[in-house]
Amino acid sequence: MFENIYIIEKLATIQHNELQYKLERQHQINNAGFYAGKTSTFNLFIKSGKNFLQSIEEKKMLSIIIIILILLSLVFFAGKSHMYIIVERERELLRSLSTDLSGRIYREDQIEGLPVPVQRYFRNVLTDGQPYISSVYLKHDGQFKTALDKEWINIEGEQHFTTDEPGFLWNGKTALFTVQDMYIAGKGHIRVSLLNIIKVLDGKGPEYDQGELLRWLGESVWFPTNLLPSSRLQWTAIDDNMAKLSFSYNDQILSYKVSFNGKGEIVQLETSRYMSRENQEIWIGRLSKYEEINGMKIPMEIEALWKLTDGEHSYARFNVNRIHHN
Questions:
Q1: pTM above 0.70, yes or no
Q2: Per the domain annotation, does 263 fall within a domain?
Q3: H or E segment at 134?
Q4: Residue 268 is part of which domain span?
């Protein structure tokens, strides 16, 4: 009996110990879960905080970028508006110097005694009774090189001319650059800007006076009554397909060697022109694709190049797509 009592007590002790162990183990597990939960919550809090701060930094950076873009847009718009005002002022000055020549009429007897190729030219491009051109507006596209060793880039341009008082204003535009080239009131000037903001070139002086007046004279092929003989303009024979064109204005004496084809078209103009402030080089203009516009035949394509010791270097190819005479 006592043995049974002993066994019962022993079993009770073992069950008690097992129950105590299970309770302690469950307590440890609960504590571990509690601390693990706390750690997980803390880590989640830290991660959320980092994401929040990163979001703030990204929004701040985005705001800065937007502000910079807005400022650049405002600067670009202001530069473009400022340039528009300047160009419009120059255009108005050019218009004010224009003289109405519509009352003057071309008669074929005016070309009697001129060199043979020059007579052939005027008989081809003008008709008897053609009114003299007073002013011209044209638009063109084409390709251009910013330097002889650079690649070709696309260009668009528009140009205003006066005739009796030599003058023009040309506005050219590429993807990055805008150019104003002009001869107004006896002065040549070229202005180049990057995105209408940064001034790249602002050329003035005697070499520009010469170069821009030569440009105006050569581009008179677009309004050929301007090439008829006058007190300022003379033609001199060279041979059956060439003649010398001389022009004097504002204390400058300029000349071109002009080449004609058998149809009576001017196909090439050659002269000496400033390529830099110190040096003059041979400049050539090549003309092609004559069409009848407003009763006159004029070239719709022109190429400009320099003839240097190492050969010819083309830098401009323009295609006229609109021209208006009045």
A1: yes
A2: yes
A3: none
A4: 101-148+207-325
